[in-house]
Specification:
2 domains; 3-stranded antiparallel beta sheet; Four Helix Bundle (Hemerythrin (Met), subunit A); Arc Repressor Mutant, subunit A; mainly alpha; 221 residues
């Protein structure tokens, strides 16, 4: 059984708190405050914060003061440009490599997404469920490097989104996933590509509106 270091535990606890928006983008935190909040020693917290800064989730302001990173409009555009390239590749490869097991994984993701919406699960759960569809598609494509980069990109978009962000439409996302899955079954590469581009563009524009709103509210304060 793997034994985790105190720094690794602190790292995971802080990331989980950011994911759940218990610690929100833009919030300033000190090592001492985090150590007390998480009931972890200051040394592991310091190591965890340094790693989170390297990973892009935190920004160091002073020796003891950190700020949870907020995604900018420029970063959002860059992330989605990257996703467009990666997911276009994934569709090409997935159509060529699609197996019954891969198909079952995508169908399971779609069904689970529908269940999450119907049961009105927390928004963060729905974000992650929607992300799973894209990561399952990347797994089918069979390129581990692409999987890692896509997973990291999706994670950063979830972690650094505006705290007051709302869903861009649960059923709209579900429809895109169902339609992409249908195109994959029909081996219709062009349709699947077209749907994926429209899907990612819709998410991007919604996020950009949320970022613009956050900026206006901050200026009005």
């Amino acid at each position: 059984m793997e034994i985790q270091s105190h720094a690794e535990i602190a790292y995971k606890k802080i990331k989980e708190a950011i994911l759940k928006h218990e610690i929100v983008p833009g919030e300033s935190l000190s090592q001492e405050e985090l150590a007390l909040r998480l009931r972890v020693g200051e040394t592991p917290v310091r190591e965890a914060l340094s790693r989170l800064t390297r990973d892009g989730y935190m920004t160091r302001r002073t020796n003891d003061d950190y700020r949870v990173s907020e995604i900018s409009a420029e970063e959002a555009i860059e992330f989605f440009d990257l996703r467009q390239m990666l997911e276009s590749y994934c569709i090409d490869e997935a159509i060529r490599r699609l197996t019954p097991d891969g198909l079952a994984a995508l169908e399971h993701s779609v069904k689970f997404s529908h269940k999450s919406i119907v049961k009105n699960r927390p928004l963060i759960d729905r974000y992650l469920t929607n992300q799973d569809f894209h990561l399952a598609l990347a797994q089918i494509a069979g390129n581990s490097a692409v999987c890692r980069v896509l997973a990291d990109t999706c994670e950063k978009l979830v972690f650094t989104r505006p705290v007051d962000a709302v869903s861009h439409g649960g059923f709209a996302v579900l429809r895109y996933h169902r339609d992409i899955l249908r195109a994959l079954k029909l081996q219709d590469r062009n349709k699947a590509q077209e749907l994926m581009k429209a899907h990612l563009d819709e998410i991007k524009y919604t996020l950009l509106k949320q970022i613009a709103l956050r900026t206006r509210l901050a200026r009005a304060r």
